[in-house]
Amino acid sequence: MVFCRHKDSVKWPKPDNMKLRYLSIDEAEKLLAKLAANSQSLHDAALLSLHCGLRFGEIAALPWSCANLEAGTLAILNAKTGSGTAYLTDRAKAMLESRKENIKSRFTLYGIHMRHIFMKAHTTFI
Questions:
Q1: pLDDT digit string (tens) for 16-66?
Q2: Cα 12 to chain centroid, rounded
């Protein structure tokens, strides 16, 4: 045990409790398969997150007008880190192209119910 008379003047290092971990390709594929069995919308949102590095809030609010499928980009507006561009992988682009043909909402990629779908899935997997 260490005793110090001037403990207030000593700057103690702060422990770094943040654990940084990424899914392996195998783990990501298993996750996507499990999500697809429960909700195609949630699967597609997770695929965008994994392939493009987007947060849930960015995906849920993403309007079709921000998707440029020809260029393979998504314009991300008002994100936590500011506005920017996300680049689509071939798999993400193919998913969005098939989704665009089947989606009911013209305004957002996932429609108004995306948050409801997420909350339902969240309780299913926990």
A1: 777 778 899 999 999 999 999 998 888 999 999 999 999 888 888 888 888
A2: 36
Quote the number of domains for the chain.
Answer: 1
Q: Are the beta carbons of 49 and 59 closer than 8 angstroms?
A: yes
- Residue 48 CA to residue 56 CA, distance in Å, equals 9
Cα–Cα distance between 54 and 44 in angstroms, integer? 12
pTM: 0.69
State the angle between helix axes of 40-52 and 114-125 in degrees (0 to 180), rounded to the nearest 10. Answer: 90
Around Cβ 116, how many Cβ atoms within 10 Å? 11
- CATH code of residue 35: 1.10.443.10
